[in-house]
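Consider the following input, taken from an annotated entry for F161B protein (Circaetus pectoralis).
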Amino acid sequence: GNKRQSSSLIDLTSDSTWDQQKPHLFPKSRLRPKSASSPWIPSITIPQPFEMTLREARKKSQLMKSYVFLELDKQRDKRQSQDEAECQKQFRAQPVPAHVFLPLYQEIMEQNEIRRQIATQKRKELLLSTQRPFSFLEKEEKKKEAIRQKFLAAATPNESSKQKQATKKVPKSTYDPLLGDKLKEAELYREIRIQMRAKDLLESSVAPIDTSNRRREPQSRTATKTKQERLGFLQDKSFSFKPRINPTIPDFEGLYWAFQREAVRRQEIKEATRNKPFKLRTSNLRGRQRQANEKVKFHFFQDSHQLSKVSVQKSHSLTRLSSLSSNTLPVHITDATRKRESAIRYSQDNKKEGDKEGIYWLEKQKKKCQAIRKSVNSRAKALDPHKSLEETHKEKFKQNWQNMRERTKEYRKELEEMQLRVKNRPYLFEQVTKHDARQGAERRYRHTLQQVGLSEEFVRKKGKDATDLLDEESDVHRAPKPQGEKDNCTVQEGEPQEEQSGKEMAT
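Applying the prediction step yields:
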C-alpha cells in the first residue's frame, strides 16, 4: 500500500544524496504540466543545504578532533618527561648520627638499679628502727603450758589430790556481801586502764613509711575547707551512739580443755559382746538318732553331688561339712521345719506362676491394644475428610519447590532480556553524536526556512495537502501495486541514508 509522504525534519538532513533521492520521492507525473489545458497541481519547494554549511560543519569536526589529539599528545609528553626526570634522580642514604652509638639504655638501667638498691636499703633501715619485740608471745606459751598441765593432772587424779580436795574448805571471804561490789569496781578500773593505754598507744604510734619528707600536693583553700567540714564529725567526741562492747576476752584454750575433761567424764564405756557356743539337745534323743543320721548322710551326698557342678566360689558348705569331726552329730530336723519349707516352696512356685501369667496377660493386652489402635487409625483416616499433616507437608513442599523453579526461570529470563537490551543499546557517545546531528539538522532547517521566508506550519500543511491529493488520485486511477511498493521501498531506503549522512556530519 501507499504511505503518506510528509516532509519531516529527518527528510531534510541529507547532504550529498539529496539530488539522487529527489526523482524517487516525486515522480514525473506530479510535476506541473506545460500545456494550459491540463489541470494545475501544486508543487512543493524543497530546501537544499548550502555547500558552505556542509564545509563549515566538516571543518568544525576536524578542528575538534585535532584539538583533542593535541591535548592527548601534550599530556603524554608531559608524563614521559616527568617519568624520565624521576628516573634520573639519584638517592643517597644519610650517615648514621653519632648519638645512636652511645650506650644510653645501659646507663639508664644502671641508674635505676642503683636507685632501687638505695630505696630498699632505706626501707629496711626504717623497718628495723620501728621494730619492737613482742612481749605477749612468751605469756601465751606459758598459759598454754599451764592449762595442759592442769588437764593432765585432772585426767589422772591421785588419791592424795582427792584427799586434799576433800579436806579443802571454802574461804569465808566468798560469803561476804561486798564481794560483788568489789568485783564490779575492779572491772571498772580495768576498763579505764584499757582505754588510757589505747589512747597512749594511738598517740605514740608511728607510720611505717615516713611521709614528712615527701612533698604534699598543694590544695586550694576551698578544698581544705570542704574537707574539714566533711571530716569534722571525727573531731567531735560527744557521739550520741555508744555501742555495747564486751570488754572481757574469753579464754578459748581453757574452755576447750574444760570441754574435753567434761566429755571424758561423761563418756560411757559399753561392754563388748562375747561369743558363746550353742548347746542343742536334739541330737541326744535316742529314738530319732538313727533316722537323723540316715537323712544327714543322704543330704550330704546330694549336696556334694550338686556342689561338684557348681563353681569353686560356692563350695564353702562342703569344706565346712568336711571340717566337722566324726564325734559331732548334726542338728535334728523336725516335722514343723519340713512343713514350713514345703509351704514356702509351694508359695514361691505359686508366685512364679502368677508372675508368668501376669506377664503373658500384659503382652496379650499390649498386642490387642496395638491392633485396636491400628484399626481405629485406619477408620479415622477413611472417615476424616481432612488430610494428614505429612501429606499436606509434602504437597506444600512440592508446591513451594515448583514456585521457586518458576521464579528462578522468570528471574533468568529477565536477566537475559536485560543483558540483550544492554547489548543492543547503542553506546553513549553514539547517542550523543546522533542527538547532536539531529539538533544541527533541525537548526539548519529552521535557518533555511527563515531565509526563504516560510514557516514550519505552512510547510507541514502543504505537505499534508499534497499527500491527501496523491491518495485521492491513487484511489481514482487505481494505480498498480508494484509501483507503490517501489515508492515505499525508495522512501524506506532513504531514511537510513539520511541517518548515515547525519552521523557523518556529526563525526
